[in-house]
Structure formats: C-alpha cells, structure tokens
Amino acid sequence: MDPPPSATATYTALHTIALSFIRAQALDPSLATRMNFSLLRSFCSPSFQHSWGHNYAVSLSPPLQGTLSFEDFVTHLQSMLPRLESWKTDVGDVFVDEARMKVVVRISFWMRAKGEEVENDLVWILGMEKDGSDQAMRICRSEEFVDGVAAKRLREIMMEKLQT
C-alpha cells in the first residue's frame, strides 16, 4: 500500500514509518527470536510508549493496563511469540494526519497457535515526532485497539498450549 501520488513529503514519511513499523513485526524464522527487534527499534524514538484500548476492555485485562516503554513492549512480544506457530499481517487501511503527526492503521494480524489461526482485526494509532539527533521521523506513541473476542480466543489457545 503506497501513499497517494499527490502526497506531501511529510505525509509520505508518516505513512512509510507506520507501515515499516508494522512490517518489522513480521515472522523471521532465521532469527532465534523470530522477530527483528533491532529493526523494530529503528522506527521508534527513545521516548516510545505503548498502550492498549478500549478503556473498558483494558480495565478488565491487567496485562494490558498501563504504558510500556520500548523494552517493555519487546518483553510483551517475547512472552507471546514462543506460543505462536506463525503470524502475518494484512494492512487494510492507513489514515495519515499530517497536522497532528499521527497515523491510524487498520490491520489483520493472523496468528496461528496450536494449529488454529485467529484473525485479530485491530486498529493501531501511531504518534510520531522528529528525533533530535538526526531529525528523522520516529514513533513516540503507540496505542493498539485489539479485537477483544479474538484476543480472548488466542489467549485460550495459548494457555492450552502451555498446559500440554
């Protein structure tokens, strides 16, 4: 999915960084961690913070409460990845707000655990800033809105895998 031909340089940069961040979370079987966390970090500012929504759903799920640093976000991913056989993403849509330096991405995360594939249809809001060191655009704020029913099913499958 490319930005429109009439897009400004700022729009294109925001769009590109957002999709690069999502693509950096791809399955990479050549790595022991199966995800390239160094590449993922390259799109994030030192002040990166991640959180989840919807507020009510998050209030009922302690692991999703609070705000994570980049290192905490990686720890969260590392806790999930060993329980997944595979995963892939399909980007459905990208909305860029140049004035607010935000990008909203709708994504289907197809996650396979214990032979069952679950589509987590999610919306990710990414806030950006220019990094002072090289003025490159980086993600400073990440808020992920997950499909609560899909997340519940995936959690059930993962817990079954731990018990077998």
TrEMBL record:
InterPro entries in the cross-refs: NTF2-like_dom_sf
Protein name (database record): Uncharacterized protein
Organism: Decorospora gaudefroyi
